[in-house]
Amino acid sequence: MYLTMDEEKIYGGESGETLATCMEILVTLGEIYGADRLIPVRSVQVAGVSYRTIGDAGLEWIRDLKAETRVPAILNPAGMDLKDWKKMGINEDFAERQLEIIQAYERLGVRPECTCAPYHVCRVAGFRDHLAWSESSAVSFANSVIGARTNREGAPSALAAALIGKTPNYGLHLDENRIPTLTIKVDGKLEGSDFGAVGHIAGPLVKNETPIFEFEVKPTPIELKQLGAAMAATGSVALYHVKKLTPESGLYPEPVEAITIEWSEIKEVYDCRCEPDLIAIGCPHIGPEELSRLAELLKDKQVKKELWIFTSRRLAKQHKEEVNQITKSGAKIFCDTCMVVSPASERFRCMMVNSGKALNYVPKICGVQCTLGTTEECIQKAVGEKR
Ligand code: F3S
């Protein structure tokens, strides 16, 4: 892999041990995947934030680093609401460690936005921008909906990219790896969480292909967010296209192979799996439109079951009116975290979600049963309305 003179010097340790280690991570990755060089990135999104995931070893590694980010870098959700962690039932030891992790990242210049939907809160990605993002739903949205270019980075490689300002040029940074290779036709007039259900089904079907979807009704960006998040969770799909909609969909020839997902298969994903004692919305973190919709649905209502809604702190601050309306109903809005990366949801027996991604991860990661509903069904369940 070609390195410029400056890069060689960093690699050789002239800029200190931390940057030499970062360069080594990037070069090693680049050589494994056949990158020709390093390319500058516009922004970085760093996963590996929850104390539950990285533990003491991760904290020590971050704490020992001595460098500063060279490009805008933001954090993925942490293991708790950084302010209201007591309300989540998080214990003091966990909270202390989690706050230390955040401080360690901040010291490096990584912004504690703590969100998996950075595109809702900051301008950090545009068409054809090269990025180094790590959280799978964010990666999928950036590649597919924005038309930016990022591989799915691990926590160390994302942090290395933030501190060097570059990433190896391979995988989804290259045109040839963005060509659709499988058409997926989807039956039915889908809306809302149906797209998460489709993603849940499509993930394992896609394998190593790049899908291009044909839908009867044009999905909204929020629906695309749900589709990509679920597909990334059940099948590690980091890029998809939607015919006549997503920015790169018209740039490549049509794939030869095609499959169909039937409406009956989509409905099966909604099969009731358990009676929820927690309803959780916000996987991925909700954006402004979803916040307004929830405020509307909860207006003049009182929840009878725990209803947790996850978003970024920045967004919650910008939309105080909606937040007040939601919390007046007894629902809780938590920031900086989510139902999957926080241990807070482990004490529940069954979680109802409106997300195909959460449906896949909650049982595996939290050990809690999970069932899917539309957003309206989730709210009805929370307020005790019969359908
Ligand atoms: Fe985000 Fe947590 Fe879901 S990080 S995509 S809300 S699992």
Highlighted features:
387 residues, alpha/beta, Aconitase, domain 3, Aconitase, Domain 2, 14% strand, globular, binds FE3-S4 cluster
What's the helix and strand layout?
Layout: H1 5-11, H2 17-33, E1 38-40, E2 43-46, H3 51-64, E3 73-75, H4 92-108, E4 131-133, H5 136-146, H6 155-164, E5 166-168, E6 182-186, H7 194-206, E7 211-214, H8 221-235, E8 241-242, E9 258-261, H9 263-269, E10 278-281, H10 288-298, E11 306-311, H11 313-318, H12 320-328, E12 332-335, E13 350-353, H13 356-366, E14 369-372, H14 375-383
Parallel strand pairs: 2-3, 2-4, 6-7, 6-9, 7-8, 10-11, 10-13, 11-12, 13-14
Antiparallel strand pairs: 1-5
Helix pairs in contact: 2-6, 3-4, 5-8, 7-8, 7-9, 7-13, 8-13, 10-12
The structure holds FE3-S4 cluster (F3S).
Structure summarized in a few sentences:
This protein has helices at residues 5-11, 17-33, 51-64, 92-108, 136-146, 155-164, 194-206, 221-235, 263-269, 288-298, 313-318, 320-328, 356-366, 375-383; strands at 38-40, 43-46, 73-75, 131-133, 166-168, 182-186, 211-214, 241-242, 258-261, 278-281, 306-311, 332-335, 350-353, 369-372. It has 387 residues and is α/β, with parallel strands linked by helices. The chain has three domains: 5-174, 2-Layer Sandwich (Aconitase, domain 3), CATH 3.30.499; 179-269, Aconitase, Domain 2 (3-Layer(aba) Sandwich); 278-383, Aconitase, domain 3, CATH 3.30.499.10.
